[in-house]
Specification:
By secondary structure, the chain is mostly beta strands. The chain contains two helices and five strands; from the N terminus they run αββαβββ. Strands 1-2-3-5-4 form a five-stranded mixed beta barrel. Strand 4 and strand 5 form a beta hairpin.
């Protein structure tokens, strides 16, 4: 019994999220493959979006829902909107809540940071 309590305290401090449930590291860094109304598909490990779905199958792929409260930032921490995002932009994406285990996976984005823009 006395050994279990310290172990539980130790495990409780090993979480990877912050107080809001947001992960400290992005769940994915990749290219925006497609954009739809309040959602985007991000594929990790591809160099261009000019490839078919067959060519990226097997890579980490996550379809993100993006609410109005999601933080979207560009280079230099400039504030952006969903409409500023472009297919082909390289992004880091943080999520909140569970990741739905389909393919592509599905998650709710809480923060999107544009690393390089496809202007």
């Amino acid at each position: 019994m006395w050994l279990i309590f310290p172990l539980l305290l130790l495990l409780n401090g090993c979480g990877t999220g912050n107080e809001q449930g947001q992960m400290e590291d992005p769940i994915v860094t990749g290219l925006i493959y497609s954009l739809a109304e309040n959602s985007m598909l991000v594929i990790e490990g591809i160099e261009t979006i000019d490839i078919s779905e067959e060519d990226w199958q097997g890579n980490d792929a996550i379809s993100f829902s993006i609410s109005g409260s999601a933080e979207i930032i560009g280079k230099g921490d400039e504030s952006l909107t969903f409409e500023d995002l472009r297919e082909g932009d390289e992004v880091d994406v943080w999520h909140t809540g569970p990741v739905r285990e389909s393919y592509p996976m599905q998650a709710d984005a809480v923060k999107v940071e544009v690393i390089s823009s496809n202007d």
